[in-house]
Amino acid sequence: FPLFIDWGAPPHPASHSPKGAQLIELVLEHPAPKEISRVVEVLELEATVREGPAPRLRARISSPLGEVELH
């Protein structure tokens, strides 16, 4: 997560990255979703937490080339 990175003095990468992509949905899957939900809440992340067989991160992104799902 970029919020955990200390970018230091140079400009933040978002200031010169290509424009046009937008995060639509972030989904965190974990065998213990209640524990993960507490962490997500404390960090004030906009993410959906679901039960899953193993830890997994999925992101749906809208881009000029269409919607993409990363997992």
Could you explain the architecture of this structure?
This protein is mainly beta. It is built from 1 helix and 4 strands; from the N terminus they run βαβββ. It has one helix at 33-42, and strands spanning 22-30, 48-51, 56-63, 66-70. The radius of gyration is 14 Å and the shape is flat. It starts with 21 loop residues before the first strand and ends with a strand.
Descriptive tags:
71 residues; 4-stranded mixed β-sheet; 14% helix; flat
Per-chain topology:
Blueprint: E1 22-30, H1 33-42, E2 48-51, E3 56-63, E4 66-70
Parallel strand pairs: 1-2
Antiparallel strand pairs: 1-3, 3-4
Q: How do you describe this structure in short?
A:
The protein is built from one helix and four strands; from the N terminus they run βαβββ. The chain is mainly beta.
Helix count equals 1
Helix-strand topology string: EHEEE
Low-confidence stretches: none
Spatially, the strands of the biggest sheet line up as 2-1-3-4
Largest beta-sheet details: 4 strands, mixed
**Assembly context of the chains:** single chain
Number of strands: 4
User: Helicity range of the residues?
Assistant: 10-25%
Indicate the structural class: mainly beta
Name the beta content range: 35-45%
Average pLDDT metric: 87
The 3D shape can be described as: flat
> What is the CA-based Rg, rounded?
14 Å
